[in-house]
Amino acid sequence: MEDEREDVQKKTFTKWINAQFSKFGKQHIENLFSDLQDGRRLLDLLEGLTGQQLPKEKGSTRVHALNNVNKALRVLQKNNVDLVNIGSTDIVDGNHKLTLGLIWNIILHWQVKNVMKNIMAGLQQTNSEKILLSWVRQSTRNYSQVNVINFTTSWSDGLALNALIHSHRPDLFDWNSVVCQQSATQRLEHAFNIAKCQLGIEKLLDPEDVATTYPDKKSILMYITSLFQVLPQQVSIEAIQEVELLPRPSKVTREEHFQLHHQMHYSQQITVSLAQGYERTSSPKPRFKSYAYTQAAYVSTSDPTRSPFPSQHLEAPGDKSFGSSLMETEVSLDSYQTALEEVLSWLLSAEDTLQAQKEISSDVEEVKEQFHTHEGYMMDLTSHQGRVGNVLQLGSQLIRTGKLSEEEETEVQEQMNLLNSRWECLRVASMEKQSNLHKVLMDLQNQKLKELNDWLTKTEERTRKMEEEPLGPDLEDLKRQVQQHKVLQEDLEQEQVRVNSLTHMVVVVDESSGEHATAALEEQLKVLGDRWANICRWTEDRWVLLQDILLKWQRFTEEQCLFSTWLSEKEDAVNKIHTTGFKDQNEMLSSLHKLTVLKTDLEKKKQSMDKLSSLNQALLSTLKNKSVTQKMEAWLENFALRWDNLVQKLEKSSAQISQAVTTTQPSLTQTTVMETVTMVTTREQILVKHAQEELPPPPPQKKRQIIVDSEIRKRLDVDITELHSWITRSEAVLQSPEFAIYRKEGNFSDLKEKVNVGYTLIVMHFPTLCCL
């Protein structure tokens, strides 16, 4: 195990040094231990880190190498780098352990402390590791699959590293795609590639070195510090306080860690993954998301006196070497007393720690913290039980030697009894505290589950009623329904807090029925998660639908109001036009002009009628409400009826005025006709000039076939026939004796008035010809 960790550190530290050399334009090293022996490459590294020129010895003897290394060590001491028990001969001789220690101190100073010194000063903290862990936990708190409590085991599955990057740069990749990856090595490879390509961080670690049961802490710290250097560095006091409350890892060796972890009865880990919640891809930030419930299932026994710490033959697997070494040497009273005092000192501290634990809280999150704190305490007891057993064995061996006086033997026996009694009391008390924590925590968690189940039932009924209620039937009702939906969204956001509290559930089961109990809980959580996801999905879908309908309805209402107002204005205008009883010729001409303008407006407004009908169809197809459909169809029918009435009134008024003109002016002279032609030409020029001022220049004329509507074609045929009849009558008038009288007398005033009336009749009667 030690050799594996040394190999990982060697590889990682070599990559770090080469990354620095790439920045300084120096040649890379290949072997960390041999390439640093002459001190020259070590000075190259320090030149780049300090920015100072460091001259090197020119020779290649051992003396020159020692001088180079001594110079490097003096530079490190000047920069306050810790160099405990590291000398120049250690580096020159290629001592692996001390060379790695030297490079780690360099990394710790320039990579870790220098990067974090500003934020440490701002927070008034001196522990860089605690600040870094606080930053990681604060960044990943919204990722339910991630719970970082250290810089070793928490990073093995690759989720923590991806979550850390994604929390600050969610634009770089999709989190769900990473979660779905089966292999921890794949997830780690993904994170390292993203960090290199997108953040410019060298790939200092290999996935296979991290995807182990117990990764190298120094290598992880070095890499996470590199991420800290390029990502936002906000750390709150609350995050630091949260880290301070985490259970402290016991000081055991790597081998002891796994053996003790395997030995303890509450080490089983169970993960329950629920179906992913609904997330809209169009939204950069979805309003809701479902949660994966992760349970740490701790197996407890029904009898609190049953303990993972046996009262007899106390010997931890990790302490065998220590115990056996003591047995091999001759046992003396002094060595026994020394070992006893050390164990009793620790035992007193452990008793005080248990006594100082707070009363069990009534808040589920606080109880979780208390549970995990006590878990760390139990781990510490387990790691020390071997030492207690060793002292008891030493005492027994000392008595068996027969070298003690009766008084000394009695004293040793009493000491052993006292030690065993205090250990047993501590063991029972700690197990009882663990059992009480389990019971309270399960009760609180079950209460939360029941509250969530009740809320889901109530909300499902609420959404069912909202689904059954028709949308509308008018715009104000729709706005009210939108407001109701906003209230539902706010309730979901508040309930999210309760859902969050159910993450990382602690499940207490009996050893005999553990699988059945966890399976039942797994099924319960899956059902609750599916129901929660369905409500979130329905809420999102309905919100999109409501927004779409509201927009279409508002557009239709605006067009409807504008069209209704326009119709009312035109209806009033038609009613105000005089069609009979004209006082003079000017009043008659004015009425004819007004009718002509109204007819032109009507032709232009026909597109608005079509647009209104199109908006109505779009709204009804989305709304699907029969009562609203009937109401809107009634509106459109009313508009169509008013439109037809307006057209009929215009035609009727035109006919009445035309009849009045024909009655009062039966004939026209040739001169009047000529002047009328001139006047028509002038009016056409004015209209053309006015159109050029208001409209953009027309495009080049193209020869194309004009497709004429059948209704317009019929009107055109009628107008042409009437125009031809009028021209025939006008030709007859030009040949009449009356025209000769006008020409002979030279008085054309009456003839001009008749021609003006004739021109107006042409425009009024043949608007289709004028448009063409």
Quick summary of this structure?
The protein has helices at residues 2-24, 32-35, 40-50, 62-78, 88-92, 96-123, 128-140, 159-168, 175-179, 184-199, 207-210, 217-230, 237-244, 254-263, 320-328, 333-356, 364-400, 406-468, 475-501, 514-576, 585-623, 626-664, 670-694, 710-734, 737-745, 749-765, 767-771, and strands at residues 270-271, 294-299, 505-509.
Q: Going across the major beta sheet, what is the strand order? A: 1-2-3
Q: What percent of residues adopt helix (DSSP H or I)?
A: over 70%
Overall geometry comes to elongated
Overall mean pLDDT stands at: 75
Write down the CATH class of the largest domain. Answer: Mainly Alpha
Domain Calponin-homology (CH): 7-111, 126-232
Protein name: Calponin-homology (CH) domain-containing protein
Pfam families: CH, Spectrin
Keywords: Actin-binding, Coiled coil, Repeat
How would you characterize this protein structure?
By secondary structure, the chain is mostly helical. The chain folds into five domains: 1-116, Actin-binding Protein, T-fimbrin, domain 1, CATH 1.10.418.10; 125-245, Calponin-like domain (Actin-binding Protein, T-fimbrin, domain 1, Orthogonal Bundle); 331-438, Up-down Bundle (Methane Monooxygenase Hydroxylase, Chain G, domain 1), CATH 1.20.58; 469-665, Methane Monooxygenase Hydroxylase, Chain G, domain 1 (Up-down Bundle); 710-770. The chain has 27 helices and three strands. Helix 21 (585-623) runs antiparallel to helix 22. It is elongated. The protein starts with a helix and ends with a helix. The model is unreliable at 250-329, 666-695 and 701-708 (pLDDT under 50). It comes from Oryctolagus cuniculus. Pfam families: CH, Spectrin.
